[in-house]
Structures are given as structure tokens and as C-alpha cells.
């Protein structure tokens, strides 16, 4: 099954990239705030039970995909 | 002193480490390819060098932390062996959970290369015992992700247990945000684990050990290790 893991910096963590992009958008006149930049990881995971596939993806997050000091993830099974 | 320098694809300070440990200090220094599973016999110090291991993919140091040689480096550390991680080496030690915290993108978003001053916060470590607490020394930094971060409770714990080895400061040793080049919490430049045998630091002492290259500020760390 196709799995999409979205990795974001935790709310309290300064995101200088997001800040720079926000300033860039302000430069074009867009009214926008709290811009955060994350990472999107897509993969095919064997299995047909979404709960089981999600559990596998969670284990991957804990082992490698996410650094819990600074990041949090949301998992979507498509 | 026998030193092992693990070399990862993308390491680029391994030769600086080799020059400092081998040529300048005269230690028996052995580069070890990351695919090896054992450190050389009787390794006393593992020097995890700087660079861009695995192209900084995913997060700086995240992939190197999984390399085959890392299991033996963890075993070495668990047995009380010395481990020094500099720059990307520090990032790798954090990702390998040998040290707490993470190194985020510099607050300025820029890669910074500059000479900085560090203040010795702990002088009773194998890495600092030839220096005095409060002593100031000058070494270069060269990184884009050196913004040390830890959750507030763990940061308080790190400070309380004397886990901060080096802090960024002015040339006179003053501490303050103005002297922190990268946004690191509490101006932290280097930390040690609870046992005091694993040290990670963003600045490069190994690049300031040879008068021919114009700087010797990093020698204190190496003299400490040999004393």
C-alpha cells in the first residue's frame, strides 16, 4: 500500500526556512503567517491491512524517519 | 594512544583529524571505513570527523548513525572508551543517541565559517583536563546545522549535570546571544554524555593545531587527551 509520511518540525522549534519563505511571500504582497517547511516521504509498504501498514510506518518513523527531538510526523495510508 | 577515525562517504575532515592526531600529536591513528564492523584492537579514542556523510540525506548524520562501524563505536563508548565527534561527527553522535539533542539549521539559514571563541565549562574531562575552567580558546567553525536544540526539561538536566563542555563566548570569555554564531540554545558549542567519555562539538579543534597553518587554539583538547 502507498504510504505518505509527513515530517514537520515541532511547533516550538524555530523553522528558519519557513521564516525565510514567509518573508519572501510577504515580499510578493501575500498575507500569510506561520509558514512551516517539512518533508514528505512516500513509499510502497507490503500488506493489505491499513492498520498493519500504518503500524509498520510508525516503526519506521521511530527508527529513522523522524528525530523526536525536533520533529513530529503524520502518517497517511492511501 | 591509538586513535580510530571512521570514514563515511562524504566525510571531508577525516584528513584534518588524521593530521592532528597522527602528524601533530604523533598518535597511532588508523582510518576505518564505515563498512567495517570492528574498530582496530586497543582503540582508545574514536574521532568521528566532520563532513557531509551520506550527503546530509534525511537529516545530518542520520544515515551515518546506522553504518556498520557504529555498533562497535557504541560498544567502545559503553565500555568507557573515548569518543570525540566534531561537526558532522557531533551530529552523527546525536543521531546515534550517544549524545542528547539535535543540531538544527543555523538561525541565519546560512553556512557559517568563522573563527569563534569557546569557554571551557568543564575542565575535568579527558578532553579538557589540560585546560582551566573558564579558559577561552579560539577555533574555527564551518557548518550550516550547528544550532543545538534540546527540549527544555532535558536542557535543564544537561546544564544541571554539567553536560556542557564548551560554550560560545567573546574573546574576553563573556557569554551572551551576541556571541552565539548559530542560535544554539544557551550558547552550547559542545556537550558530553553522563559518563564524560563521549564529547560532541561543532567547532573544529583539529583545524587549529599546527602553527604552520596559522592557528593552535585547538591544541588544548589534544593535550588533554594525551595527558
Notable features of this structure?
heterodimer; A: 78 residues; alpha+beta; Mth169, Chain: A; three-stranded antiparallel beta sheet; 36% helix; B: 227 residues; alpha/beta; Rossmann fold; nine-stranded mixed beta sheet; two-stranded antiparallel ribbon; 11 strands
Overall pLDDT of chain A, averaged? Answer: 95
If helices are DSSP runs of H or I spanning 4 or more residues, what is the number of helices of chain B?
5
Class of chain B in CATH?
Alpha Beta
- As laid out across the biggest beta sheet of chain B, the strand order is 2-1-3-4-11-10-9-6-7
Structural class of chain B: alpha/beta
**How much helix, percentage-wise, in residues of chain A?**
25-40%
Number of helices of chain A: 2
Cα-based radius of gyration of chain A, to the nearest Å? 15 Å
Spans of chain B of at least 5 consecutive residues whose pLDDT stays below 50 are none
Describe the protein.
The complex is a heterodimer of chains A (78) and B (227). Chain A has 2 helices and 3 strands, in the order βαβαβ. Chain A is of the alpha+beta class. Chain A has a single domain, classed as 2-Layer Sandwich (Mth169, Chain: A), CATH 3.30.1280. A 3-stranded antiparallel sheet of chain A has the order 2-1-3, with helices on one face. The longest helix of chain A has 16 residues, at 50-65. By secondary structure, chain B is of the alpha/beta class. Chain B has one domain: Rossmann fold, CATH 3.40.50. Helix content of chain B is 21%, strand content 26%. Chain B has helices at residues 14-24, 68-78, 88-95, 152-160, 219-226, and strands spanning 2-7, 28-33, 45-48, 82-86, 102-104, 112-120, 136-143, 147-149, 164-169, 188-192, 198-201. In chain B, strands 2-1-3-4-11-10-9-6-7 form a 9-stranded mixed sheet, sandwiched between helices. The radius of gyration of chain B is 16 Å and the shape is globular. The chains are: A alpha+beta (78), B alpha/beta (227). The A-B interface holds A 13-14, 16-17, 20, 64-65, 67, 69-70 and B 58-59, 62, 66, 94-95, 100-102, 104-109, 147, 149-151, 183.
Amino acid at each position: 500500500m502507498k504510504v505518505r509520511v509527513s515530517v514537520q518540525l515541532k511547533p516550538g522549534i524555530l523553522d528558519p526556512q519557513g521564516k525565510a519563505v514567509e518573508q519572501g511571500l510577504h515580499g510578493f504582497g501575500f498575507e500569510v503567517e506561520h509558514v512551516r517547511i517539512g518533508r514528505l516521504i512516500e513509499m510502497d509498504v507490503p500488506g493489505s491491512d491499513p492498520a498493519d501498514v500504518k503500524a509498520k510506518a510508525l516503526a519506521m518513523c521511530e527508527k529513522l524517519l523522524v528525530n523526536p527531538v525536533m520533529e513530529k510526523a503524520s502518517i497517511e495510508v492511501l | 594512544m591509538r586513535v580510530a577515525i571512521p570514514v563515511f562517504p562524504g566525510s571531508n575532515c577525516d584528513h584534518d583529524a588524521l593530521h592532528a592526531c597522527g602528524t601533530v600529536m604523533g598518535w597511532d591513528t588508523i582510518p576505518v571505513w564505515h563498512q567495517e564492523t570492528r574498530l582496530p584492537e586497543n582503540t582508545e579514542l574514536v574521532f568521528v570527523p566532520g563532513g557531509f556523510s551520506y550527503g546530509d540525506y534525511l537529516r545530518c548524520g542520520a544515515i551515518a548513525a546506522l553504518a556498520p562501524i557504529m555498533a562497535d563505536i557504541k560498544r567502545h563508548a559503553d565500555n568507557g572508551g573515548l569518543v570525540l565527534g566534531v561537526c558532522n561527527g557531533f551530529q552523527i553522535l546525536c543521531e546515534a543517541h550517544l549524545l542528547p539533542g539535535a543540531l538544527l539549521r543555523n538561525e541565519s539559514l546560512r553556512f557559517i565559517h568563522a573563527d569563534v571563541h569557546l569557554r571551557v565549562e568543564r575542565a575535568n574531562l579527558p578532553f579538557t583536563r589540560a585546560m582551566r575552567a573558564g579558559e577561552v580558546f579560539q577555533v574555527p567553525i564551518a557548518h550550516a546545522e550547528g544550532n543545538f536544540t534540546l527540549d527544555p526539561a532535558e536542557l535543564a538536566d544537561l546544564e544541571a549535570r554539567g553536560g556542557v563542555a564548551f560554550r560560545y563566548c567573546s574573546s574576553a570569555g563573556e557569554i551572551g546571544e551576541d556571541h552565539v554564531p548559530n542560535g544554539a540554545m544557551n550558547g552550547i558549542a559542545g556537550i558530553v554524555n553522563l559518563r564524560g567519555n563521549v564529547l560532541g562539538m561543532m567547532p573544529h579543534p583539529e583545524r587549529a593545531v599546527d602553527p604552520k597553518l596559522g592557528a593552535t587554539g585547538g591544541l588544548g583538547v589534544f593535550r588533554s587527551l594525551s595527558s
